[in-house]
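Recall that a protein's primary structure is simply its ordered list of amino acids. Everything else, from secondary elements to tertiary packing, is in principle encoded there. The following example makes that idea concrete.
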Amino acid sequence: MNKRLSKGVFVYLLLLVAQVTPLCGFTQESETPENSPHIAELSINGPIGPATTDYLVRTSETARENGARLFVVNMDTPGGLDAATRDIIQHILASDIPYVTYVTPAGARAASAGTYILYASHVAAMTSSTTLGAATPVQIGGMPGQQEPQKPPGQKPEKTSQEAEPADSADTDGESEPEKQGGTAMERKVINDSVAYIRGLANRHNRNADWAEKAVRDAATLTAKEALAENVIDVVADNQQQLLAQLAGREVVMASGKQQIAAETTRLPVVAYEPDWRNELLSLITNPQVAYILLLVGIYGLIFEGYSPGAIVPGVVGVICLLLAFYALQVLPVNYAGLALIVVGALLIAAELFVPSFGALGIGGVVALVIGSVLLIDSDVPGMQVSKGLIGGIAGVSGLALLGILYAVGSSLRKPKIAANQAMVGRTAVVTEVEPRLLVKIDGEIWSAHCDNLLTEGQLVQVVAEQGLVLQVQPE
């Protein structure tokens, strides 16, 4: 029964994965001869994470080998992880082929991490009715209770808004930057680092560095037309044809120096490079929701294997899911305290079967599981968090499992006591071997047996007596 249930769960998981995302091969919308000059079209849609970096880097290398002369990256993103964003920017800055980042279609945005990538690109372009900005780092919280650093003796203390005098407004403008920013030392450190980073990108491509700083410090945003007027972007185009027409003859700053985009380049055919199966798989695994589910399936799979030794399927599925989860978690911003709480919570729920505590261990396990799930992904980036609904569903299922365990334990406690040498009497077994000795199987266990009648393999027998480790059986 356990094996059939485990196989059913395994098949269900495979079908679920197949429905979430089909593994597609590397595709191009328009075919061109090998090594033929063309414009490579790439896409960044959704949160920026490790899968985005892998796709952009590997696909651009493939496109370069196939003869790409220009990269056009269509972008619509709410932001992403800092490490992944910096990897993408380093790749763009080191490229010997110009990158044109194009915020499209209408209604799209280049928020947070997208703003940094837009500033790093050799040409920054937007469609009308799109926006960019809000580049303030969101993961800047210091340790609770972190104190401000001590000021040197004699330094003028900060004034609160109630203490500030209107007549001193001119002096206030001259205050040091940390005093004007406020916040903890860690917050100022991250903010200032981000400001210096985006100003460096702006100065490299001669774009508005002051507004870039405002986007980081004040989470400022702009529309496409406002961004063009503020010298934040280079081009506003309603479609790809208009974009390519405005690129001809434009001078860009490459790693090797200034370079001009030739008019012939903009008239090359456009080839769209879609994510291949490897990137689809990486994108699926590194999704925080999927990584969280894989982690729980892996833990519970190993626990079920411990309950039913020899079932094999739960152990195999558990190990595979656990390895995939560990791979995903090592590239995601994970809070290891949350991970430890999830593991401890699952083990406490499992321990309820072996050490009946009338719900104390199980309830503690469910609480630890829920708290650990909330803390697991240490990021406020949209799309890079574990859904509260998913956590609630897991907590509900764990609670039901706990009730089932308590019911099973209570039922076992109400059963009459049976002598140790009579525990197998009345059980049904299957003959697995007749010669050289009789062996029968009961619930996955192999027992030596004795029978006065002639038996055949596969025959059902009933235990009538138990003599040590040898069972007395008879045909059922």
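Residues 1-33, 140-180 have pLDDT under 50 and may be disordered. The two ends are 21 Å apart (CA to CA).
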